[in-house]
Input
Amino acid sequence: MDLGTLRKDMMQAMKDHDKQKKEVISSLVSAVKMAGINAGDRENIPEELVDKTILKELKSAKEQLDTCPESRADLKAQYQYNYDLIASYAPKLMSEDEVKAYITEKYSDLVATKDMGKIMKTVMGDLKGKADGKTINAVIKSLIK
Output
């Protein structure tokens, strides 16, 4: 995903008078710009940074959704909409089966050591932004048992 696509979609939401969609995309654009500034390049923000920022915002939206009380159906619906919209921009992450196949293929010798910390450190560095950390953790735990 690139910043230009987000901006274009935000403009389209403005033209369509879709306030909620515009606000969600606008917050994504702001978060990406802030990440670019923090990385030291506010003009040419790489797609990897955009994807990383979108995944971070997706995680925040998921936490909002999970912590919302059941009695607040209106708020829960809004959080669900935000989560779904952000998820539509998020890069596709590897499934549990794909992670398991990747680890067993590439790190079979490391898995044989059964050193959870060493395996996690190596694999997380390799799969950062490609797979969810909780998924990686679960797969590694199942492999070293």
User: Anything to note?
Assistant: The mean pLDDT is 90. The chain is about 75% helix and 0% strand. The first helix runs from residue 3 to 15.
